[in-house]
Amino acid sequence: MISEREKAIIRYLLENGPTTVAKIGLHMSLSQKTVSQSLKRIDEFLQETAIRLVRKPRVGVFLDGDSAEILKYLDGNEESNLPTSKKDRIQFLCFEILKQKTYFTRQQLQDALYISKSTLENDMGQVSEIFRHFNVTIEVLPGKGSFLNLSEQEKRRLAFDLIYYFWGGNWKITQEQQRYLHSIQGIPQFVNDFIDLTKIS
């Protein structure tokens, strides 16, 4: 099984032809070490297919094989919920932090997303800004880690605020007989795992 991140790398290779580990890392905000690890997993995934991941000096990294065949294997592979784009990572981090019952570390967040320290620091800058928008501060206790000084009720209220903040444009109201039904489309699984979305109304 390969992750969504590795699928994104495969699609990038299909769109760009021969490229470098550095360019893939830059495009996806990943360290070169992380990209190399993903390329290794992609190579293993393709071993039983007629498609090959090729790495040639002075040429670059590319996929050798029919692109339609590659996409067929890609689409047939089991999905993973790991966010790949910066926007998806920011959303994931906001809810991952809300889920924490006690102190958490940057390393834990980094490991959850398989991203570099610099990428996480950059993403956390935006996460902190979003939380500040709702008058919430991520507090730090030296030697222990970071935490949100919020009650469970306050966390749930913030979760609903974040849902509207990120996906409010997908909010639809439909009329069914004498009732109005509210729904928001496109909510990722990590949100559904955290909060009962049937309470949005």
Automatic annotation (TrEMBL):
Pfam families assigned: Mga
InterPro entries per record: BglG_antiterminators, Mga_HTH, WH-like_DNA-bd_sf
Coiled-coil residues: none
Keywords, ordered alphabetically: Transcription, Transcription regulation
Domain Mga helix-turn-helix: from-to ranges: 87-139
PANTHER family: CRYPTIC BETA-GLUCOSIDE BGL OPERON ANTITERMINATOR, LICABCH OPERON REGULATOR-RELATED
Protein name, per record: Helix-turn-helix domain-containing protein
Organism: Enterococcus entomosocium
